[in-house]
Amino acid sequence: MNKKEIREWKDFLLDIVKVLEQKAVYADALLLQTKELRVLKDKTSVDVNSDADKGIKIRAFDGEQFWEYGMSGFDKKKLMKQAKALSLKIKKKDKVKLDIDKKRLDNDFASKPKIPVEKVPLSKKVKFVEQLQTKLIKTDAKIINARVLYAEESEFKIFVNKYKQLSQYLSKGLVITMPYVQTDEGDIRYHYCSFFKPGYEVTSIPDKKIKKIAAFAIRIRDAKKIKPGKYLCLFTAKVSGLLAHESFGHGLESDTVYKGRAKAKEYIGKRMAAKNVSIVDNPAYPDRNGSFFFDDEGFITGPTYLIKNGIVQDPITEMYSASRLGVRRSGNGRIESFDHTLYARMSNTYFMPGKDSPKDMLKSMKKGMYLHFFGGGMEDPKAWGVQIQGGVAERVKDGKLTGELFYEVGMTGFLPTILSNIKKVGNKLDIPGTGHCGKGHKEWVSVSEGGSCLLINDVDLS
Amino acid sequence: MEDIKKITMAELEKARKQKKIQEWNMTVLTINRANQYITKNFDTESVLESERIELHVKIHKNLGKHVGDSSFVVVETSTPKIRKQIAEAIGLCRYSKKEKYSLPSKQKLKKKTALADKKIQQGFEKGDIHVKLKRMCDAINKRVQKHKDIKLNGMELLVGSSTKQVVNSKKVNLSQEKTSVYLEMVLTASDKKREMECLPYIRVARLSDIKVNEFVDEKVKLVKDILDSGSSFNFTGQVLLSGGAVREYFMPELTLSPLFVHCGARIKYMGLSRYQPGKKVAKQFKADRITAYTNPLLAYNTSSSNFDEDGVPSLRVKLIDKGIFKNYIASKRFADYMKTKPTGSIGSIELSAGSKSVKQLYKNKNFVEIVEFSSFCPNSVSGDFSAEIRLGYIWKNGKKKAFRGGMFTGNVFKLIEDVYFSKERMNVEGYYGPKAVMFNDCVIAGI
User: Measured between CB atoms, does A122 come within 8 Å of chain B?
Assistant: First the structure.
């Protein structure tokens, strides 16, 4: 949309809000449009596809609950008709006082990629994928296939309520590589690697890195199954991030806390880890997969400490549960799409860096495991159980990586124990995550995770 | 919507007649939703209604020895803009080169499986669907209240009514209606010392498929057992999967089981399948041999569909017969490549009954029973898994004790070598198969 169209939409959506607020205590409107291009190659074919979605969601709060309506497309007549129909259902009540952010703001935000994807011809993108795929597969005959994906995604949103008229344009560039290998026993394994930047600069992957990816895939061929047990572990930033996200972050989402689902509530204000442990969620961290300027309730984003110097802090929030809990708001209200409701969701979640050098952390390990990465996990906010799976670990002996790999490792445990077992926190910050997060198995939003590497004692691996 | 559909079809046909493309396929999907979100103290947090319309188009362009194809979603509403979208997609085809295949031709559905609940459809038409949903929410709340020390801390009741139509340049024109109901509860059990929760959910096609009292009572028992559960331990031996765990093992939420991923013609074509037609799917079989189908024709099952995205009528397909791999799951494209029959939509996993009754399986002396996983996410290619146990029981000489935590680890291709399936089967969303499955020689890693 150009500036004129954005202005027209802002004004029109404000009219919608006014119609709803004839009866409602509060109302807002969110317009969203997404576009995606995917170029995928493996040894058999090239697939080039595009995807798109557009729709509008309006909400009205009657003093007790929200009334929401979502529709595909941008039909103004239809939207106005629906707003009037929705308004008729509303009777003002006085049960819940929403903490509405009344700071007025009319602004437009946009991510700033180094190389906007629109400036790059499709032929170049396809050539990049073809060349990268060829490089991977030609590295070694043991690589039986390799999939390479280049994806570019743009997301445009306009949010309007009585106080805010905002727009944001987010662009994302993603590259995923998956070389496949076959073990001597006939099992098929793969090595998943992903890269993220806001624009086409994501394709600047050095040859050295590509060779490393292929070499690691070959090593995975011979990886064994780990013997279940407790290990001293050095977590890479990716793994630390997953721990922060799955095992802690979900338990500090305000809707989870409000529903009595979060053990973290008992610990707010209390020490749960050493002073060198801090976990942050920050949608405003620039140019990451979970970055955005304002949330889907128009709240301008910023960092929120989940743990600060070992002390558990207030949850990340959306408006309804923040109001009911009486906690300050953060910009974490997010929807999967216009036909989904809003929840408090993480964005970019990471351990803050500490003081220890990662090299020294490795050197200090007489024996243990180096956790390269994991695939994902599942939350357990009530019992603080940890489930993270799909990992690759490497044995460490006398301060050095031994080359002995373990495949499809799972991590479990009790979160407070794991956090209290953190011995050292690395001094470098990296937020490489490129995935999606669900509430259980639904409501998907893009996130990233990472932080500093961690040295943790007695981690249960299996 | 009808206008956009007509414009798009007309423009696609125009492009085909001008030989800019050779074939096209269009899927029109409409989804109406009515959702209720209940929070603590049975307060309604939100009521949502939505209408989603999607128009997916796929085009084919001859590229000499190859074909180029590209798919896109129509989001524009005017003829010039739709024409521009089609032109852009034609441009993408040049780069999307692959071995030639064709779209399916017109076929009649032999049998149209019923997938839609008329009561839900009428609720949307009359505008009183929320009344029905509220009634169900009230009934659930009332039933939970009957249980002491159990709280309903949240509930989501999400109902959808959808239509899907597939048309293509070869005169395919198929349509179907579907409904779905998703219910999720947050149940908390407490005693003087602690409080534990479970998050049971159910996905069905009809409101009447949810037997409120039975469902609530069963899940209350689950959360009470979670409350009473002890901690995990290391174990090697027999593991019995029952309840939600057996369904999730064979039909995980986020991916097809590796046992059936390798039945895919696509995976075979990519050189990644470990199966060969006519050969065993495991190295050996010491107990029951698996027989598995994909069945997209189970009535009122949310995994069912009468046809796939290409417009190929769905078939019940025998994938594995007594441990021998038989047939691929194949879309039209990969069916053409593999010179096999296209199978339509994937559907539920159907497993044949085993040799032992549930009673016989429970007669084993010492074993672990897993009732719920936190989330079962196997590696879809290698078959490896490590899944946390949300609720299990350790059985010793006929007596059981609840536990939670710890990881059930293994490889699905290894475990299938030594397994007993129960004779009794259950039919739930996505899974029609044995109620209980006993794996021998398993590992549980405790905390």
Answer: yes
Residues 6+ apart with CB under 8 A from B209: B181, B300
- The Cα–Cα gap between B55 and B69 comes to 17
Cβ-based contacts of A460 with chain B (< 8 Å): 407, 445, 447
Reduced to 3 states, what is the DSSP secondary structure of residue A19? helix
User: What would the DSSP string read from start to end of A107-139?
Assistant: EEEE---SS-GGGS-HHHHHHHHHHHHHHHHHH
pLDDT tens-digit map of B231-246:
999 999 999 999 999 9
Chain A residue whose CA is closest to B41 = A259
CA separation for the pair B70, B15 (Å, rounded): 14
Contacts with B77 from chain A: Cβ below 8 Å: 73
pLDDT tens, position by position, A76-116: 999 999 999 999 999 999 999 999 999 999 999 999 999 99
B52 contacts in A (CB within 8 Å)?
55, 70-72, 338-339
Query: How close, in Å, is residue A286 to chain B by CA atoms?
Result: 30
* Cβ under 8 Å to B: A residues 6-45: 33, 39, 42-45
Please name the residues between 19 and 58 in chain B that touch chain A, using a CB distance below 8 Å: 31, 33, 35, 37, 39-40, 43-54
Nearest to A276 by CA among A353, A367, A194: A353
A352 three-class SS: coil
Q: Test A48 with B184 for CB contact under 8 angstroms.
A: no
Query: Over the stretch B264-273, which tens digit does the pLDDT of each residue have?
Result: 999 999 999 9
Contact between A326 and A318 (Cβ < 8 Å) = no
ipTM of the complex: 0.95
Asked if pLDDT for residue B1 goes beyond 80, the answer is no
Closest CA to B154 of A94, A446, A253, A59: A253
Pairs across A and B, CB distance < 8 A: 231
Number of neighbouring beta carbons within 10 Å of residue A2: 7
Instruction: Please tell me the pTM assigned to this model.
Output: 0.96
pLDDT (mean) for A290-310: 97
B375 contacts A462? CB cut-off 8 A: no
Structure tokens at A151: 């994806």
Q: Mean pLDDT over residues A129-145, rounded?
A: 96
Lookup: tokens for A123: 């032929």
